[in-house]
């Protein structure tokens, strides 16, 4: 559950800034309301995460209103995937 707490911390409106730690990437997740998560760049190499990126490309292309990488899945699914990746 530590990954859930880390991800939730990145959602705090007080902590929302343009600064992302070195070696990390900010992404927006959700089907309706988008929430911001900061993830390690290493996740980009994992096949499961690459599938999410492919879905994002199919749904949003490369020019999206959020201005950042938007992942079209539920917050719950994203947290499940990232908690799995953090243990790998």
What is the topological layout?
Layout: H1 2-9, E1 24-29, E2 35-40, H2 47-60, E3 69-71, H3 75-87
Parallel strand pairs: 1-3
Antiparallel strand pairs: 1-2
What does this protein look like?
- This protein is α+β, with helices and mostly antiparallel strands.
- It has three helices and three strands, in the order H-E-E-H-E-H.
- A three-stranded mixed beta sheet has the order 2-1-3.
- A hairpin with a 5-residue loop joins strand 1 and strand 2 (35-40).
Kindly state the percentage of residues in helix.
25-40%
**Content of β-strand:** 15-25%
- Give Rg in angstroms: 12 Å
SSE order, one letter for each helix or strand: HEEHEH
Average of per-residue pLDDT values: 79
Largest beta-sheet characterization: 3 strands, mixed
Total number of beta strands = 3
- Ends apart, CA distance between termini: 15 Å
Strand neighbour order, sheet with most strands: 2-1-3
- Tally of separate helices: 3
């Amino acid at each position: 559950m530590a990954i859930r707490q880390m991800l939730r911390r990145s959602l705090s409106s007080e902590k929302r800034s343009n600064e992302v730690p070195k070696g990390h990437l900010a992404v927006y997740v959700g089907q309706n309301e988008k929430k911001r998560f900061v993830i390690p760049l290493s996740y980009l190499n994992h096949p499961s995460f690459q599938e999410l990126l492919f879905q994002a490309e199919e749904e949003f292309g490369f020019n999206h209103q959020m201005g950042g990488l938007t992942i079209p899945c539920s917050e719950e699914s994203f947290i499940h995937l990232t908690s799995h990746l953090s243990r790998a």
